[in-house]
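Entry 14. Ran structure prediction on the chain below.
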Amino acid sequence: MNSSVVKDKEKIMNNILIACGNEVEAIFIQTSIGRSFQSKIILSPQDLNGHLDQANLVLLDHEFTGGAGLDFLQEILNRSYLPVIMLTPKDDAGVAVEAMRVGAFNYIVKAGQYEKILGLSIREAIAKFNEQEKMKETIIELKQRIYELETRLAQSGSLPSSRKKTASSSFQGERPSIMEAIRKRFKQGEINLPTLSQIYVKFNELYRKDANQHEIADLLKQDTAISSKLISVSNSTYYRGISENKTVIQAISRLGMKTTRRYVEVISNRALYTIKNKKYSPMVETLWSHSLSCAYASQIVAETLALHLPEDPFTLGLLHDIGKLILLQIISELEMNKSLQGPVASGELVETLNANHSRFGAALLKRWNFAADYLHIALYHDELQQADPISKSLLVVHFANLLVKSLGFDYEQPKEIEPEKADSARLLNLTPENIEEMKPKLVEMMQELAGRLN
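Output, structure tokens:
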């Protein structure tokens, strides 16, 4: 099939709804994507009726309503199950953050010649959305098979007593478990898994191609939140030079490309740590603090032992617990929608997160196309003895995870943790002196840099 036929087929299949109150700008957007997609323009929220059923994706301008488009975004998500790309202002990063919190699939900052990336961003969003749907169906099918098997075993008396209650609860009229409720919502298409920001994806593409600092800076300038925080970090006591940095290129020059990449990852991931149910906001913030501290600790361990790992230890530590965040966001949503028949007890919540986050995290990282090391660590950072093989990277994150918990960077009640006695410390040949030297370094980095990344 030739390329023109493929493009024509894509154009027929993908209908884009453009929600923009400025008719001139709306037509400009429509023209920019016209070669690849069919599109329809609405100039006010009152024009929405009848259009959502025909759309594959919505492009929503932040000026569409007086509420920065966020109220209309919520209306779309309440009425349909579509990916929404938010067009956000270049001088207010808060709109992008809030849009992602409400449920936007992605955002594009209206800076420079942003229209040139519209087509690519739409294509990627639709592809990832469709991939997400297939992944949900697979998860649902597998869980349904397990559920049916457990039910049959429970009825025959072959299931261990510890599992009988879960397997038979729906027959006894008991409240379904949290994981049963999550499975049901996946099946009904009511749960969206997050996606990586386009700036982050494009940054990594440039990084892998050994792009120069000016090319990287030109990309990062498109995201006000990333560029401003990057400059702030470069001016911290930890990295500060003789003069104050005022531009992105100056910040990159001071930090170096490798460290710049780490902070782009941190700032991009920070945007994921939002939650609608304010009851869980403190827990989300603690999860963020734990993930960031584990990233720094992993970096410190690798540097102390002069380890050269296949993947960056900082990023491995940053993403090891991503499954807990995603599960907590899903549980929060279900509770707000009254899908759990009452509030979730703290003990049940912690037990659910601890028991299921590793598989959720690995599945999400696989969807994001991370390397096998990331999936391996997501699965086994709490269960070292179950891993095969036990890699150096896993040992580093396992120990870092225990170290930061011992220093209080965790959402659970403080426990008596002795990281120096862990198997990972022994297998890494870490000495008590090594460990004692790491602690003040870690605390200093968190005190100096964490606040600049919020």
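Residues 203 and 216 are 7 Å apart (CA to CA). Will compare against last week's run tomorrow.
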